[in-house]
Write a structure and sequence with these properties.
Elements lengths: L4 H18 L3 E5 L6 E4 L1 H7 L9 E2 L1 H4 L1 E8 L9 H19 L5 E7 L2 E9 L4 H8 L5 E6 L6 E2 L10 H4 L3 E7 L3 E8 L6 E7 L1 H13 L6 E4 L3 E3 L11 E4 L5 H13 L6 E9 L1 H30 L1 H23 L8 E2 L1 H30 L4 H33 L3 H32 L1
Parallel strand pairs: 3-16
Antiparallel strand pairs: 1-2, 4-6, 4-15, 5-6, 7-9, 7-12, 8-9, 10-11, 11-14, 12-13
Length: about 450
């Protein structure tokens, strides 16, 4: 471009937009001894242009704090052809449970390691591991049992009986045809007499008929309710219940009642899951890690700026300005991605990838400047040296960055969790670094020398 003025002002425009996106809201900010106080509310300005959702960095578990659990699926009774389907079904049930429980921005992923089928669950902001385990690790298979043989009951082998069932129903309990699949919804209510929390069960129309039949033939007898092969309640039926509702009482807290209700609403897991690995990260630890990472990034950035200015003088100063613009552009991309379903989650490994990409952006400038020095030593003018230096350095920059992008794609494809975060952030940084080195730096140099 013979007249770089238009491109120069376009870069300035992008920089201003990036600053607006990246800068956090503040109020009553005093400048030195001036009495004037500044305020900036990003969300109010966004609403004026029609953007209702807040723009913010989406922080990962290691920065925000929370719980990470790796669950191993028991596929011993699942045929080989249906293992993937069973794993995806279990993932959907867990995702539904987590969504119903109200966890903000959870991550539920499946993974296959050799012959092991796993589900990885990350719950930001949730630090109670016992609560997490009861929420996502519970199979939530609800069954109803009665005494004696009936038309709607099936004889069950003793080894498959729920724990504690025989002490309520004797040696020959029978499972009814009423299960958790007949539930329409559940909710947490409170006993009017004791004030304790309980779980209200509302059956479907078909389930209501089954429940009514069961209570009719068991007046004066015990009907046991079992969850995940363990009796949780064994009430005595005083009269037939025709309303189609039932209540599970017990030694519940509000949280445990809510967890049980959520698990029942989401449905039973199709396969048993066991906890393979768990990590609980407190918000204080996450914030400390973030502060240390940012401090390391700032120190590294300043060292790079000093190095470039000392080594290349005015060219290094221009490259440093381009590096600042590069940093703003990448951070703006991270932040504005929160408006989409494919938001970029920042983790410690992602920050490492971002800092690495800063070094790669400087590396591109070094290649260009060394090429320019060679042209100047051959007696060419500065304008000519700029154009030739950029054109000859471009092939090396292109090939090295493409190699890095291919590596990032492989890491993202076959990696999991933090490895994918590192690969994604690195790839974005590399792409923007090429724009910074080839477009931003060259435009500034053209503009200044012309």
């Amino acid at each position: 471009m013979k007249n770089p003025r238009l491109l120069f002002w376009f870069i300035i425009f992008l920089t201003v937009i990036s600053i607006f996106i990246v800068i956090p809201s503040f109020s009553n900010l005093s400048i030195g001894s001036l009495k004037t106080k500044l305020s900036f509310n990003q969300q109010d300005l966004l609403r004026r242009i029609g953007i209702k959702n807040a723009i913010d960095f989406k922080k990962g578990l290691d920065l925000q704090g929370g719980t990470s659990v790796v669950l191993k699926a028991d596929m011993s009774e699942i045929s080989q052809t249906k293992k993937d389907e069973a794993l995806n079904s279990a993932k959907m049930v867990i995702q539904k449970r987590v969504d119903l429980f109200g966890v903000t921005e959870p991550i539920v992923e499946t993974s296959k390691v050799g012959n092991d089928y796993r589900i990885i669950v990350e719950l930001p902001g949730v630090s109670n591991f016992d609560q997490v385990k009861s929420l996502i690790g519970t199979t939530a298979k609800l069954t109803f049992w009665e005494q004696g043989a009936t038309g709607s009951a099936q004889i069950t082998p003793q080894k498959n009986l729920p724990l504690g069932l025989t002490q309520f129903l004797g040696e020959n309990p029978k499972q009814t045809n009423l299960t958790g699949n007949d539930l329409q919804s559940t909710s947490v209510t409170f006993d009017q007499n004791t004030g304790k929390p309980q779980v209200q069960l509302v059956f479907t129309s078909d389930g209501s008929k089954k429940f009514a039949d069961i209570t009719k033939r068991n007046v004066g007898k015990i009907v046991a309710i079992a969850l995940d092969n363990q009796v949780i309640e064994a009430p005595r039926v005083n009269e037939p219940i025709l309303s189609g509702d039932a209540v599970i009482t017990g030694d519940f807290t509000v949280d445990t009642a809510k967890t049980l209700s959520t698990a029942l609403n989401a449905g039973a897991l199709p396969i048993p899951l066991t906890t393979l690995q768990s990590n609980v990260i407190g918000p204080t630890l996450g914030m400390s890690s973030l502060q240390k990472s940012l401090f390391a990034g700032i120190i590294g950035f300043l060292i790079i700026v000093v190095f470039m200015v000392v080594l290349y003088g005015g060219l290094g100063a221009i490259a440093s300005i381009a590096l600042v613009i590069y940093t703003l552009l990448v951070l703006a991309i991270f932040k504005i991605s929160s408006l989409s379903p494919y938001a970029i989650t920042l983790t410690l490994s992602g920050i490492a990838g971002f800092i690495l990409s800063i070094g790669m952006a400087v590396d591109a400038n070094i290649l260009i400047f060394e090429r320019m020095k060679e042209e100047l030593r051959q007696g060419k003018s500065k304008t000519s040296a700029i154009e030739v230096g950029f054109s000859r350095a471009w092939t090396s920059i292109r090939d090295s960055n493409i190699a890095t992008l291919i590596t990032s794609m492989v890491l993202y494809k076959f990696g999991t969790g933090t490895v994918q975060g590192f690969a994604l952030v690195l790839a974005i940084g590399v792409i923007v670094s090429m724009f910074s080195a080839i477009v931003v730096t060259r435009t500034f140099l053209r503009f200044i020398y012309k």
